[in-house]
Amino acid sequence: MSAKSFVEGGIASVIAGCSTHPLDLIKVRLQLHGEAPSSTTVTLLRPALAFPNSSPAAFLAETTTASVPKIGPISLGINIVKSEGAAALFSGVSATLLRQTLYSTTRMGLYEVLKTKWSDPESGKLSLSRKIDAGLVAGGIGAAVGNPADVAMVRMQADGRLPLAQRRNYAGVGDAIKSMVKGEGVTSLWRGSALTINRAMIVTAAQLASYDQFKEGILESGVIEDGLGTHVVASFAAGFVASVASNPVDVIKTRVMNMKVGAYEGALDCAVKTVRAEGAMALYKGFVPTVCRQGPFTVVLFVTLEQIKKLLRDF
Q: Where are the alpha helices (DSSP H) in 52-127?
């Protein structure tokens, strides 16, 4: 039973991840949009936070930067296809495949194991708080396992936005991981791991726990019978909840993972610099594509999972 839950969750996650990869790529590019280039020495500071010994000229240099034009997910997608070709929408798909195999297989399987273990032996039900606990534990462990693939995926997805001279041009996920280890050390594979784990805990708790809760509520209300309609409604609602809860952490995670060495001192430094330079709403950059990706991803994930469970029920 335990092993089967990992297989079911892994297959469903790989299908969902690969089928929605272009949406995830657009989300990553939007989250990086507006980030200061790594080569610049310009730092955006509010007047109250300017260094006391800074000269007026230096202060002007710090505060007078060209504004970055806003761009929407559709326009960005069209620009990517025009400038890099349609295949660019699947940049990093090999890393997505590895990430889903490691991260999502672990979290989906472990969530089912914990849910079964913690359920009331008589009624078979589990409270919402315990579902959230199961999601937090499963998501954290899954993220720790899958972080190297996550870093590789973010870099491969973001590579096309860099100037030609700065592109990493990884041949695939294996080359990306090998290059990171060689150029930046093994620890670079777990860059941003604290953020990844925090995000994964939030996403898994919000996504899996809310799906189960929405599904139970729909079935108890008797509005829809257990079937495709129930699964689609419950999963899309779960995807929206997960998007709202995780987007700020996801933006910081993306920027930390994609950074050149020394760009940020850590997650907090990245968050502070992002808010100072671009405003608090920068933490919700890419929210529309996040919802547009999380919605379909979660629908495909749970609809596929329910069908796989039916197929493997007798095994």
A: 56-63, 73-84, 93-99, 105-118
- Three-state DSSP at 39 gives coil
pTM, rounded to two decimals: 0.73
The token duo for 253 is 């995670």
Structure tokens at 313: 């029920």
Note the pLDDT tens digit of each residue in 116-143: 999 988 888 899 999 999 999 999 999 9
> pLDDT tens digits, residue range 218-236?
999 988 889 999 999 999 9
Please calculate the CA angle 298-72-19 and round it to the nearest 5 degrees: 30
Are 144 and 193 contacting, i.e. CB atoms less than 8 angstroms apart?
Answer: yes
Among 252, 241, 301, residue whose Cα is nearest residue 280:
252
Distance, CA of 280 to CA of 207 (rounded, Å): 25
Cα–Cα distances in angstroms (integers) from residue 64 to residues 41, 43, 44, 71, 241, in the given order:
13, 10, 8, 21, 38
For tokens 């993972």, name the residue: 257
Rounded CA gap, 191 and 171, in Å?
A: 21
Give yes or no for residue 39 having a pLDDT over 80: no
Alpha carbons 9 and 110: distance in angstroms, whole number: 9
> What is the Cα–Cα distance from 257 to 72, expressed in whole angstroms?
23
Q: How far apart are CA 313 and CA 103, in angstroms?
A: 24
Longest dimension (CA), the chain: 75
71, 29 Cβ separation under 8 angstroms: no
